Protein: Ubiquinol oxidase
Organism: Rhynchospora pubera
Amino acid sequence: MNSSIIAGSLLRQLKGQFLSNAAAGPVLFGQSPVILYGISLGGSRLLSTAAAESSKTSSSDQTAAKSSKPSSTGKFKVEKEVASYWGIEPNKLVKDDGTEWKWTSFRPWHAYTANTSVDLDKHHDPATFGDRMMRLTVKALRWPTDIFFQRRYGCRAMMLETVAAVPGMVAGLHLHLRSLRHFEHTGGWIRALLEEAENERMHLMTFMEVSDPRWYERALVFTVQGIFFNAYLLAYILSPRLAHRMVGYLEEEAVHSYTEYLKDLDSGKIENVPAPAIAIDYWRLAPDATLRDVVVAVRADEAHHRDVNHFASDIYYNGLALKEVPAPLDYH
Ligand SMILES: [Fe+2]
Ligand SMILES: [Fe+2]
C-alpha cells in the first residue's frame, strides 16, 4: 500500500469523524445562520411562526437532505444531513419585525433592555485588610492600562472585555465542579455567574464592531488570558470572598471607564457613530441608536456585575456560602 492510498484512507476517516462531531455544534445553512443545538431546551416555546413553519416542513427536508448531491459549487450540504440524522430540526429564527435573526452568539430571548437606573456611584468601602489589598490590586492594574490605552476608549473597552468575561466563567466552573464533588445545590449561582460571563462576552462582540485590534493587541490578549485565567482560578480556590471582592472593584473601575468614554463621546473627541446592529438587537435599542446608547447600556451592565460580585463577597464575609443565599438571576 503506497503512502497516497494510506493518506486517502486517513482523510476519509477524519472526514467521518468531523461530520460526527459537527452534529453537536452550531451549523450555518447557506447564508442563513441556523442554530442546531439547544433547541429542545426551551427554544421551541419561543420560536416564531417562521420557525414553526420550518419545523412543519422538516420531514420533507429530511428526505431531500438524504438524497443531497454536490451543489454546482461542488459542496455537499453535509450540515443538513447531519441535522436529519440526529433528529435535530433546524429552526430559522426571526426578529419581532419578521426579519431574519442573523446572530449566532445569542438568541432573541437573550435580548433585554438595560436597567440604566442602577446607582452608578455605589462603592464598597474596604472593611478588611483583604478588601484593601484587592482594592489596591485593582488600582495597580489600572495604572498600566491607562498608560497603554490612554483615552482610546473603544480599543480599551474591547481589550478589557476579553479579561472581564473570565471571572464569571471561572467561578461558575468552580461551583459546578464543587456541586458535583460535594453532591450539593448551589442556589442558582452557577447560572448567575455564567450569565455574567456571557454578558461580558457580548460586550466584546459589540466592541469588536467599532474597534479592530492590531496584531500586538491580539498577542497581548493571548498572554493576558493565559495568566489571568490561571491566577483567578487559583485565587478563587484559595478565597472566593476575596476573588469576588476583586471583581467588584474591577467593575467599579469599569463603570468609571465607561463614564469617561461617555464624556469623550459627548465632547466630540470620539465620534458618536451609529450603534452596531448586534448591540441594537442585544439591548433592544432603537433602530437609530448610537454608540452613546450602547455605552450607557454596557455601563449599566457593569454596575450590575459590581453589585453581584460585592454581594457574593459579602455572603462569604458573613460566614455563609453562596448556596445558602439565592442568586440574583437575570439581574441586568
Ligand atoms: Fe463588560
Ligand atoms: Fe462587567
In short: The longest strand covers residues 27-29. Residues 153-182 form the longest helix (30 residues). The chain has two domains: 3-110, 129-324.
